[in-house]
Structure formats: C-alpha cells, structure tokens
Amino acid sequence: MTRGPSWFNVTSLVVGFSFLYLPIVLLVIYSFNKSRLVTVWGGFSVEWYVSLLHNEQLLDAAWVTLRVAFVSASVATVLGTAAALVLVRSGRFFGRSLFSGMIFAPLVMPEVILGLSLLLLFVAMDQSRGFWTVILAHTTFAMCYVAVVVQSRLVGFDKSIEEAAEDLGCPPVKTFFQITLPIILPGVVAGWMLAFTLSLDDLVVASFTTGPGATTLPMKIYSQVRLGVTPEINAVCTILVVLVTIGVIAASLATRRQQVQKERDERAAFGAED
Amino acid sequence: MDAPVPVKRSLGGWALIAVPYVWLLIFFLAPFLIVFKISLSQIAVAIPPYLPAFDLASGWQAFFEKLGELSFENYLWLTEDDLYWKSYVSSVVIAGISTLLTLLIGYPIAYGMARSPQSLRPTLLMLVILPFWTSFLIRVYAWIGILKNEGLLNQLLLSLGLIDEPLVILNTNIAVYIGIVYSYLPFLVLPLYASLERLDGSLLEAAEDLGCPPWLAFWKITLPLSLPGVIAGCFLVFIPAVGEFVIPDLLGGSDTLMIGKTLWTEFFNNRDWPVSSAVAVILLMILVIPIVLFQNQQQKIAEKEA
To answer: Is some CB atom of chain A closer than 8 A to the CB atom of B176?
Structure first.
C-alpha cells in the first residue's frame, strides 16, 4: 500500500501499541517500588533486586533454566536446520507428508498435550525425570520452530551457487559448510534465539517432564505468582524482560546492518558491470 | 519451493532425513500413541498410577487377548461427568470469543502498520514481535497487578471518578479474554500485516477515482484481499487458545472452565493419569479439524507464491 496514514491509522497504532506495552512498562516501574504492597507507590528503591541476590532458590532455578535453554536450543538448531533442509531440498521420499506434519503440528499443539505425552513416554521408557528429560522435551518442540524459521530462509535461496560448487568438485558436506550455511546463517541464528527464549519461557511442558532437583525459573515464578503478586517477582521479570529486549534489538540491528551491507555490495557489483 | 521430484540420494542425504525424522517419531509421535494407550487403561494405586492396557512384550497372542479387555471406561466417564463436557464447550467458546476480539483489535493495528511510511515499518514490525519474545508467563502476570480489585486500573478509574466501587475483573472470564487477546495479538497482527502490505494501493486509488467511498472500498477491496491473512491469524490464535492453561489458571476464576486447566488438575491434583490421557485424546480430536484446515490453507498460500 502506498497511501499515507490517516488519523484513524495513527490512533489505532498508538492505542494498539500502548495496549501491548503498558502492562510490561507498569511491571518494570513497580519493580522499583519501595512498598511491599505492589500496587501502592511508596517511593523508589532497588531493595527487591538486592534481596534477589540472596534468594538462593531463585538463583538455582535461573541457573537450571539457562543450562536447559542453552543445551536444548543448540541441539534443536542442529536438528531443526536438518529438518528444514529436508523439507526444502529432499524432494519426495517415503513418509514426507508425515514428516512435514510432525514439524508443523507442535507449533499449534496445546502445551498440556505435549507435556503429558512426553511425560508418559519417559515413564514408559522407565527414565527417571529431571534435567535431561526437560532438555529432550524442549529440544523436540523447539526444533520445529527452528525448522520453520530456517525453511523460510532456504526458500529464497539461489541454488545455482551450490550447484556451481558441486560441479567444481566440492563434496556435499564441504559445500554445506562453505556456502549454504553462511547464507542461511541469519535464519539459523534467529532459530537458535527463538529456541532459547521458548525454552526460557516454558512452564507447562517443563512442569510435566521435570523431576526432583530440576525446578526451572518459570516453575518457580508460577508457584509464587499463585500466592500473589510480590515485588521480588516483578524484579525477576524486569531482569528477564530487559535481557530479552537487549538480545532481540541487538540481533535485529545486526541483521539490518548485514542487509544494508549486502545491498551496497550488490549495487557496487552492478555498478562495476556498467 | 522446488517441485518434489525423486532424486538419487547419497548416504549422507539419507542420514539428513533420518536423524530429524527418527527424533520426531520417538519424541513426538510415539508419545501420542502412549497417551492413547494409557487412556484405555485403568487407574491403579501404584507408580505409575495405571494398569498397563496392553504390552507388546508378552507377544502377539497376549496382545490380542488384551485387546478384548480394553477399557473405554475413561471415555464413558468423560461423558457421564458433565465437568468435562462443559470444559470442552466453554474452552471452544472462550477461544472463539477471544479470537474475534483479537481480530477486532488486531486489524486496525495491522492496517495502520501497512499504511505507515515505508521507513517506519521495520520499527513497527519489531515492536509487534518484541512482546512475543518476552516471557508469556510474565505478560500474563503483569495483568494481575492491573486487574486486581485494588489494582492499577481500579485505582485509576476511582480517582477519575468514573466508578464508585472497584470493578471485579480478575478471576472472571473477562480477565481471561483480556489475557488471551493480549498474549496472542502478535500472532494475528503478523500474518495480517503481511497480506495487507502486499495489497496493491492502485486498486484503492482506482476505486476512489471512480467515486467509491472509503468504507465501501475497504469492504469491497481491502477486506477480501486480506482474507488469507485474517484466516491464518485467527487459526493461530484460536488453536492454542483452546488448550490454554496459564491464562485461565492465573486470570480466570474457579468457575472458569477450560480444558487445559481441567487436564492439569486431573493430572497433578487428582493423579488420575488414564482420565487425563482420555481428556488429551479428545482435545486433540477437537483440534485436528482446525489444524488440518490451517495447514491446507498455508499450503495453498505457499503454492500460490511459488
């Protein structure tokens, strides 16, 4: 669309974005509230952040969550990238529609079903539950998100570069690491980040698949939230929100700069041809 | 996408297919079969708390014998106790109403984004995606402080003199609607924006030149052309909302029945694994239709673009 925005468009954007951001902004503001009564402003204070540092249970949970997220995001990225390559490149093979069904179904499947079914699998396998079962569970649903992100990057991919490399005798594995991977890298990195935040964020699947000694941060937050809103939880949430915001903005700036660079290179190349 | 043609595959090519395929078979498909199996078994006071329904380890003979003993009791139980029936219906109703509300709020936002200057669009897009990356739990939690009886919304309305006594919103279905709309808004805005942005502005200019009032042009041109985005967005909100657990649990009241919450209670509080498995199987059957419709629609869009 080319026409300019009307007052209606501007109003709906302002109202819409206020709706999206106001709750988070209020949560951040009230994490600096001196009063223990969360909704009564009692002056500025960072005491809740200080008290967090002494809350060992919460710190433990945060450490477990970070490790789970790191391992599961990394494994999911490898599996998801492979799955994306299969979806885009492998042509027809036996069970292809089952395969793509299994990739897309977890994206919309209710978390309670994913969690319950994985728990029952672990019980059937006689597997004691804990840190590793959460990782397996997170890897499984995160790889599907990675596959979708990487797939969208692969679809717009100029295959002739790869073919040129293979014609010149480059073995497939080397072609992948030297040519394919660098080109789809932004998609792979975005997929990893998505997998990481999904794992960081997950309450339901982790609650089903975890065991003693592996309480994740969302589980901890959830059990405290059920007892009521506390300023400490506001402070934990604020830290998470700030970290994620920095990560996402940094990533998008990096992608945009890369894109600008690419356009400049292309223009330079075309300029040289003229 | 390339047309699927049979290709000669190397060993590496087969391995590439096999690894993610086998992973999904083990950790995605097999668990569903187990859920189905346990939903047919009987509850027992043991660990795990159910009697095995059938076990392939004891050979095919035993398997067929056991087949006769399968118990559909859990499913019968689901039809007898109206808690489950009501939970299913009320989940679908709540998800449906929330989807409609999300569409009403999301459409003007996506439309405004598509109409904004080209240079501003990446930033706006970023602003829609950012909340999606922030924790779901945190975003739901943020609403508790706002909607409580002594919360920020009531404080504001009371101080403005708009109301005399606090509105009771938290722990009602209204809070659940607000929670779902808020959490899933980006899912609707993104596909909708994608289809609105591609819309050819000259069509609207032509309509205007021919004397078509803007609202009619919207009704006759913009809305039909953005329909694929509307449908995709509504599916993306509706399907996960039906099985939602966190939002009804934290924002809803004790009378807010949603099937995700019922399943959770059945599993964690009542420890009835067979019944919660049966609940999951039926939930899945309810969702299969919208999921298949959604995938068909996505495939059609993908084919059109190719």
So the answer is: no
- Tokens read off for B162: 């708009």
Torsion angle, alpha carbons of A163, A169, A172, A175, to 10:
-70
Task: Please report the ipTM that was assigned to this predicted complex.
Answer: 0.84
Phi, psi of A170 (to 5 degrees): -80, 125
Q: What pTM did the predictor assign?
A: 0.84
Q: What is the pLDDT of residues B65-95, one digit of tens each?
A: 555 556 677 777 777 778 888 889 999 999 9
Instruction: Please tell me if residue A213 touches chain B, with a CB cutoff of 8 Å.
Output: no
- Domains and their CATH numbers in chain B: 81-305 (1.10.3720.10)
CB of A43 closer than 8 Å to CB of A34: yes
Kindly state whether residue A171 falls inside one of the protein's structural domains. Answer: yes
Residue A161 belongs to what domain range? Answer: 57-227
Query: B129 and A248 in contact by Cβ < 8 A?
Result: yes
The answer for B 7-36 residues in CB contact with A (under 8 A) is 7, 9-10, 12-13, 16-17, 19-21, 23-32, 34-35
Q: Is residue A247 part of a domain?
A: no
Our count of domains for chain A comes to: 1
User: Residue A156 is part of a domain; what is its CATH number?
Assistant: 1.10.3720.10
The answer to whether A9 and B112 are in contact (CB under 8 A) is yes
pLDDT digits (tens, 9 = 90+) for B206-249: 888 888 888 888 888 888 888 888 998 999 899 889 999 999 99
